[in-house]
Amino acid sequence: MSRYDIVIIGAGxxxxxxxxxVAPHARVLMIEAETQPGxxxxxxxxAFWSETYGGPDIQPLSIASHPxxxxxxxxxxxxxxxTPRGQLFIAARADRQVLDGFAETFAAAGVTLTETxxxxxxxxxxxxxxxxxxxxxxxxxxxxxxxxxxxxxxRRGGAELVCSANVTxxxxxxxxxxxTRAGVxxxxxxxxxAGAWADPVAQLAGASAIGxxxxxxxxxxxxxxxxxxxxxxxxxDARDRFYFKPEAGRLWxxxxxxxPSIPCDAAPDELDVAIxxxxxxxxxxxxxEAVERKWAGxxxxxxxxxxxxxxxxxxxxxxxxxxxxxxxxxxxxxxxxAGGGDAAAHRARPDGRASRPRTLFDxxxxxxxxxxxxxxxxxxxxxxEGA
Length: 387
Ligand SMILES: Cc1cc2nc3c(=O)[nH]c(=O)nc-3n(C[C@H](O)[C@H](O)[C@H](O)COP(=O)(O)OP(=O)(O)OC[C@H]3O[C@@H](n4cnc5c(N)ncnc54)[C@H](O)[C@@H]3O)c2cc1C
Prior knowledge:
The protein is an alpha+beta fold. It has helices at residues 13-22, 55-70, 96-108, 118-121, 143-156, 198-204, 270-283, 332-348, 362-372; strands spanning 2-9, 28-31, 48-49, 82-84, 87-91, 114-115, 131-135, 139-141, 160-162, 167-173, 175-180, 183-192, 213-225, 234-237, 243-247, 250-254, 259-260, 287-301, 308-311, 318-327, 377-384.
C-alpha cells in the first residue's frame, strides 16, 4: 500500500495548484474521481479574470494574483495566462445608482472604473442601456493551460495523480487511510479539495461539514449575426442578470444563475438557456443564428461566500481547501501559497498539530487560526461569487 505525506482529494484547479506548491517538500498524491482532472467546475468556467471579482472582501486576492497570472514563472511555462479583454458594466438610466454604488465600493479599494458610453464599446447594444462603466484590466484566463501547468509542475515535483478513484471512505488510524475505487492510500495529511463535494467528502472523513452549497451556473455558446468579434468586451449587467463575452468568433452567454443543486455532473436546464437568450435579446439587437453548445457547472459557496481553508478543529491531519464562489483562478496562486505552506508546516510537527498558517488575506486568517489551533483535516476551497 502506498503511503504519502499529503493526500489531496480532487484534482481541479484547487487540488492541482496545491499539489504543485507542496510537491517539492512532501510526498503528494492527488486522488480524482473522474477519468481526467478538470471535468467539473474547473473545465466549465467562463474563464475571465476581473479586478472586481468576488466583491471587496475578495478583490485584494484577485489583484494580488495578477502579477503571477500575467507573468508566470518559467516553471509554469513563462507565458501569460491572461489575454486582455476589458469589462463593460451596463445599466439602464433608472439603475444609474447601482453603477454609482459599484464604482464607489471599488474606488475605496483602489480600483478605478471609468465612465464610458456603452454603445461605443458594444456595437448593437440597445439604446436603453445608456449607462456604462469600464474596467480595462479584465482579461480572459487560459484555464485549460493554467490547470495543465499546475498539474505538470506537481508531477515534476514528484506528485502522483490517480484518476477514476472516487474516494468512498477515510479513516484516521494514526495516519489517514483513504479508500477509493482504485485502491487504498495512506497519508499523514488529508486535503479536501473536492469542490461541490466538499461537504460529503468532509463527512466521510468524519470531519464537520461547513454547509458548502453547490449553485448551478448555465453557459450557452451562440453563433450571432453580426459575429462576436474578439474586440468585444465582457459585458456585465449591473444588476447581475446576465453577462456575455466573445470566444473564438462565438458568444458565451450566462444568465448569471445560481440554482441550488446537489453535488453532481451538472447539466443545463432548457429554461435557463431560454432565460439567458431572452436576456441577451433585451440587451442587443444581434440575430441569434444557432445555439451551438450549452453547459452548466457548480460554483460552491460556504454560507458567508468566503474562501475556506484550514485544518478541521476536530480531525487531526485534515485540511479543507475550498474555493468560494466567483473566484476560482484569480486567487488561486495566492491561496496556494497559504494552503501549501500550511500543509507542509503541519506535516513537520511531530505532535500532529498545525503551525500558525500563512495567508495573505485577513478573513481567511481568522478562520484559519480558529481551525488550526487543534489541527486535523485540511480542506482547500475556492471561492466563486459571480463569474
Ligand atoms: C459555469 C461556471 C463559470 C465560471 N466562471 C468563472 C470565471 O469566469 N472566472 C473564475 O475565476 N471562476 C469561474 N468559475 C469558478 C471556477 O470554475 C471554480 O471556482 C473552480 O474551478 C473550482 O475549482 P475546484 O478545484 O475547487 O473544483 P472542481 O474543479 O470542481 O474540482 C473538484 C474535483 O474534486 C473531485 N472529487 C469530488 N469528490 C471526490 C471524491 N469523493 N473522490 C475523488 N475526487 C473527488 C471532482 O471530480 C472534481 O474534479 C466558474 C464556474 C462555473 C461552474
